[in-house]
Structure formats: C-alpha cells, structure tokens
Specification:
The structure holds 2 protein chains of 2 kinds. Helix content of chain A is 74%, strand content 0%. By secondary structure, chain A is mainly alpha-helical. Chain A has 2 domains: 1-75, RNA polymerase sigma factor, region 2, helix turn helix motif (Rna Polymerase Sigma Factor, Chain: A); 81-159, Arc Repressor Mutant, subunit A, CATH 1.10.10. Chain B is mainly α. In chain B, the strands form 2 sheets. In chain B, strands 1-4 form a two-stranded antiparallel ribbon. A two-stranded antiparallel sheet of chain B has the order 2-3. The chains are: A mainly alpha, B mainly alpha.
Amino acid sequence: MSLQLYNNAVKDYNNRICRFADKLLMDSNVAKDITQETYTRLWENRTSVDFLNVKSWLFTTAYRLSMDHLNRSKRYLKEDSIPERWLEQDQPDLQKIVSDSLALLPEMQRSIVLLKDYEGYSYEEIGQMLDLNESQVKVYLFRARKKIKDYIGDLKLVF
Amino acid sequence: MENIEQLIFDYHEGNLSDAEKAELLNIIHQNPEYEKDFALWAQTYAHVPNNVPDYGLTGLLLQKAVPVWYSQYWLPLSIGAVSIIIGIIGFFSWFHEKDNNFYNAPKQEHRSPILEPIYLVKPQTIKSRQVIAPQKKQIPKAVNKNLQTEATLKKNIAENKELILIVVPVEEPNEKKQVTVTTIIARPDTLTNTTNINNQTTNEEKMKSKPKRKLPLNLKPSPDFMPVNPNF
C-alpha cells in the first residue's frame, strides 16, 4: 500500500471507524484513541494489507481494540431500565431512542447491529470480522433487534 | 405462531423471497395482533443516520509525503555519516593520546661526569677445598731506573715469589765484541721506565726516598662485579 492509498483510506473511513467505536463504547474520547491506534497499526502494516480489503481490516482492528478496552476497564454498559431522559420528553425522537437503546445490548450484539445497519456488511463479512459463522451472526442480530423492539414497545406503552 | 417473529425479522432483513413475503403479509392481514409487532420490528432500523459525523481526526491521521531519495537512502546515508564521525573522533583521540605518550614519556637520567657509578666487588664464596691460583700479570715493556743489585734481588726472591725474569743484553769492551746476557730479576711494581744499569746504587737510594708508583689499574670490571647505580 502506497502513501496515497493510505491517505485515501484515512479520508474515506476514519469517521466511520470513529463512529463505530463511539457507538460500541459509548465514549467519544476513547473512540478517537482507538481510531488513531487503528490507523497507526495500518501504517505499520501497510506493506502487508491489501487496499481492496482495507475497510474490513480497519473495522476488525477497531472492534478488537474496543473489546480489549472493555475487558481492561471492565465496563458493563447494559442497562436494565429505560433512561429517565426519555420520559422527560413529550415526543421523544425515535432515532435517538433507538440509538440510545444500543447501550442495552451486549458488546457482541451491539457490534453486529452497528456493522449491519451503519456499514452495510453482510452476514458473511461480519462473521469474518468477528470470527463467527453466518448462522451465529443471524442469531445474535435477531436477539438484538428483538430486545430493541421490546424496549421500544415498552416506551410506547409509557407514552 | 412461534416462528412469526423469525419471519418478520427475515422480512425486514431481506432474506425472504417474493412468495414468502406475500405469504407473510397474508398471515399478518388475517391476524391483526401481529401488525403491532410487525411495525415495532420496522422501527428497530430507525437509528441509522443519513450522514456520517466528522470527529476531526482526518488531519491527524494523514501521512506527509517524504522525498523519494530520503525514503530509500536515508538508512545507508545515516549509517555512513555516523561511521565517518566515529572514525574522525577515534583518529583524533588516538593522535592526541600518541602526543601525550611522547611528551609524558619518562626522561632519561643525566649522569654528571664527575660522579661515576660505584662498582662493588661481588664477594667470592671460597670453598674449603678450593685452590686459588695467583693471577698472571702482564709484563710491561719499560724497565725501571731503580733496578736492584743481584744480592738484593736474591733476597727478594726468598721473600716474595711474584718476581719477573728480565733479560738485558750488556756489551763488554773486547775485540770480538761478544755480547753477554745478564739476567736480572726484579719485582713488577718497580718496573716503570727504561733501565740504567750504571746507576743501580743511586737508584736504590732513590727508591727509598721516593714513594712507590702504582701502575694504572685495569679498569675493566670482571663479570662477577655487580654495578650499583647510586641514583636508585
């Protein structure tokens, strides 16, 4: 990978990588650090990484770095109750509610939802990045959407 | 239906064919209680934004271009420059050390002409059965004026064994001019100048009045001598 191709990868995917890490970790500062670390590793391994597969390589590296961070910090982002800020609004924004509901999911399910909905990866590609088979990806994704659907349904009952 | 949620999930994921989609919609239409779940499943995809936010990392992550020659030859050039600098420093340090060794070398000791080293004679260990032979002395060519008479010489022979036999030709007043040889025995310490036989008696008196001359000693030291340097 030449210098120009590396810079193209920076321009095309650095914000997407950061958003993925931000949604996964629920911390924008840590997400920026992980993004920088991801591109640092890409620069160090630029001779061995193919430019055609650089997007999947970046997301895979960002996911692993995020998991390492969560394991070190031992943070559990899953919430069992509806946040109070949702109850304060008269007409809560559905997009923001669903986006915040990702914090209710485990890290694996959250990662799959982000890669599927935000980046448009297929089940097979997600399986390669997260070291899962296709059926496992479908199962995790089904459970994640069902949980989001249940919380949305409970919220509408409140409103 | 237990698998209605799975079908609804597959419907929204795009995993069903057209026939399967039509069958599912027919089931939902026949069962209105499934419409609420069908709508909630659709709302789970509402969190996807239309645009990607900018986190301000693009400028930090971009790599600047470097000259081709720098990227290819910086390593050998840097190694060469470092080796040259090390060589120059090593040469100057060696040269400086060499000068210091020259100027700081120990100076040779200057001996004054007056003071001469004192040579001590190595004591000889004489064994009980060792026999020391008398040293042979060289016979000088000159003959002393103060030659003694034969009587005194014979007396000296009995007293001192270290005598030298000297042969001196004497001319007698006869027609045939026969040369007779007179043997004279003298001590080596009395032999200094040419002979004067006519003045034997006067020479004998002079010997008594004048002090004895000592022949110059041989200054060559023997191998047994141990020279001692007074400067130590």
